[in-house]
Design goal:
Layout lengths: L3 H9 L3 E3 L1 H9 L4 H9 L2 E6 L7 E7 L5 E7 L6 E7 L15 E2 L9 E13 L2 E13 L5 E2 L2 H12 L17
Parallel strand pairs: 1-5
Antiparallel strand pairs: 2-3, 3-4, 4-5, 6-7, 7-8, 8-9
The chain binds zinc ion (ZN).
Zinc ion binds next to loops.
Length: 180
């Protein structure tokens, strides 16, 4: 298991990668690599997740040079880089403020961990060339690796929503970017 000092050094040196969930958050909230490095180098543990025996993780709080506060949940598992499980600015609406009792029954297909937190996510679907965005989809985010999982019921509801007679709540133009 890594020490906080090792995690600080890895974050500060740019030796980190992201779960899909953290990747989406960093892009959506415009959190730069430099901000993560700056905040990561001085981050302190504000919450430990000791129930996670196999892959201990912790919630860190760090401050960027511009004074932006960032919360990171990172894995303390021995590995060459630090995995950022999720990242966000402290916000009363974020799940950090929700009670622990919301941890749900879960079985992660990626890492085998059995605790997750509920969260509302947005997804873009490609329907034979037509893109549709569905917001506020209930999902479970693995506490250990950040993998996002959706229930059978939710999946069926979303499928019916986008293929049925429901009307979209709004239509917005979408800028499309592609990696070269
Ligand atoms: Zn997992």
């Amino acid at each position: 298991m890594k020490t906080l000092r090792q995690v600080q050094q890895e974050l500060g040196a740019g030796q980190f990668d992201f779960s899909r969930h953290a990747f989406r958050r960093a892009v959506e909230r415009n959190i730069s690599e430099q901000e993560i490095r700056d905040a990561g180098a001085n981050a302190e543990v504000i919450e430990n997740y000791p129930q996670d025996k196999y892959s201990p993780s912790g919630l860190l709080l760090g401050i960027t040079r511009a004074g932006r506060a960032l919360h990171f949940q990172v894995s303390f598992t021995e590995s060459e880089t630090t995995r950022i499980i999720t990242i966000y600015e402290p916000d009363p609406n974020e799940w950090i403020e929700k009670p622990k009792a919301e941890v749900a029954m879960f079985d992660c297909h990626v890492c085998g961990h059995n605790a997750a937190k509920p969260e509302l996510v947005s997804e873009v679907f490609n329907l034979e060339g037509r893109r549709v965005l569905v917001e506020n989809i209930p999902a479970l985010v693995c506490e250990r690796c950040g993998e996002v999982a959706f229930s059978r019921e939710t999946t069926e509801q979303v499928r019916q929503l986008v293929h049925g007679t429901a009307r979209p709540v709004k239509t917005v133009p979408m800028d499309v970017f592609a990696m070269a």
